[in-house]
Each structure stands twice: as structure tokens, then as C-alpha cells.
Amino acid sequence: MDPKQHERIAVNVSTVTIAINLALAGFKFLAGFLAHSGAMVSDAVHSASDVLATCIVILGVKLAGREADQSHPYGHERMECIAALILGVILAATGLGIGWSGIQKITGGEGLAIPGALALVAAVVSIVVKEVMFWYTWLAAKKIDSSALKAEAWHHRSDALSSVGSFAGILGARLGFPVLDPAASV
After folding, report:
1. CA 40 → CA 22, 48, 130, distances in Å?
2. Which of 39, 52, 150, 162 has a CA between 20 and 30 Å from the CA of residue 87?
3. What is the pLDDT of residues 85-98, one digit of tens each?
4. Cβ contact 181:112 at 8 Å
5. Who has greater pLDDT, 127 or 72?
6. Please, are residues 134 and 160 in contact by the beta-carbon 8 Å criterion?
7. Span 72-92, mean pLDDT?
8. Distance from chain centroid for Cα 85
9. Is the dihedral of CA 59, 61, 63, 65 positive or negative?
10. How many angstroms separate the Cα of 137 from the Cα of each of 93, 163, 167?
11. Taking the alpha carbons of 172, 176, 120, 100 in that order, is the dihedral positive or negative?
12. Gyration radius of the chain over CA positions
């Protein structure tokens, strides 16, 4: 495939997922705030961090498309792998930050609020949207054989699964176990 076409497809997919993640993060933050759900607010922060991760994917794809030069006689294709590695580091750091915040809520002696039903709705919406984003990105990644887009697709899938955890924690808190909401953040 022509490197420019490869780049165009990857950038288009990434731009769409940035827009969706921004809207989803805003919706989840608002739902988490209004429904008093730490798990949903954490999920919103996670979705917002996805925007940065997707920008890294775009940068990696653009750099990988550069022609060989004197410093890189074999080209820049490995930049996509580096972007995938950076994406993994960002995911780990985001997860650690969100987990730490949840642990602080559990151990901090704060009164634990029972989240509202809106947080459950937001979790379901997030699961569905993130699964659709997985398939959209995965199919594009397979089409252009992009390791960075494949990593981004799996990132969407992991987000869908983390939203399942948020849903379980919120539901558990609503059923009388309020500690499950911040536990879901962890």
C-alpha cells in the first residue's frame, strides 16, 4: 500500500476516535459528577487520556511514512512500533493514577456516596461505543497493517472492559455496597 494512503487512513481513523473520545469523556464526566460516581469520573479521565494516546498514534504513523534519509537509510517504519510502545506506557501510567485515586477514596475515610442511575447508563453507553471503536480501528489497522492502529484498537477494547468494571462497581454500590464504586476505579 502506498505510504501516503496508509497515513491518510490511519489519520482519518484516529481523528474520528479523537472526536468520539472527547464527546464520550465529556458525557461520562458529567454523568459521574451528577450521579456522584467516582468510578464514572475515573472512566471519563481515562477516556480523556485516550485523546493524548491517539495523538501519539497519529505522530507515529506520520513519522513512519517518511522516506529513508542519511540518518535512517532503511526508512522510518519502526516509528509506528515506538508509538505503540509509548501508548503502552501512557496506558500503564493512567491506570496507576486512576487506581491510586480509588485506593485513596477507599482508605481515606470519606463518606461513600451511592451513585445515581445516570452513571449506569453512561457505563453502558461507554461499553457499546468503545466496542464499536475497537472494530472500526481494528478493521482499518488490518487493512493497512499498522501496529500502532492495532495497539489503539486493543486500547479501545480494554476501555470497553474497564467500563464493564465501572458498570459492575456502580451497580454494586447501588445495590448496597458503596465501596464497590471506588473499588471499580481501582
Report:
1. 15, 12, 14
2. 39
3. 777 787 788 778 77
4. yes
5. 127
6. yes
7. 71
8. 15
9. negative
10. 23, 18, 24
11. negative
12. 18
Mean pLDDT of 20-40: 93
C-alpha span between 133 and 135 (Å, rounded): 5
Cell of 166: 465501572
Q: What does the block give as the cell for 6?
A: 496508509
User: Would you say how long the chain is, in residues?
Assistant: 186
pLDDT digits (tens, 9 = 90+) for 107-123: 875 667 789 999 999 99
pLDDT number for residue 137 = 95
Determine the Cα–Cα distance for residues 123 and 45; give it in Å rounded to an integer: 13
Of 3-7, 65-69, 179-183, the least confident? 65-69
Neighbours of 148 (CB within 10 A): 27
Give the integer Cα–Cα distance in Å for 179 and 103.
Answer: 10
Nearest-angstrom CA–CA distance, 47 and 41: 10
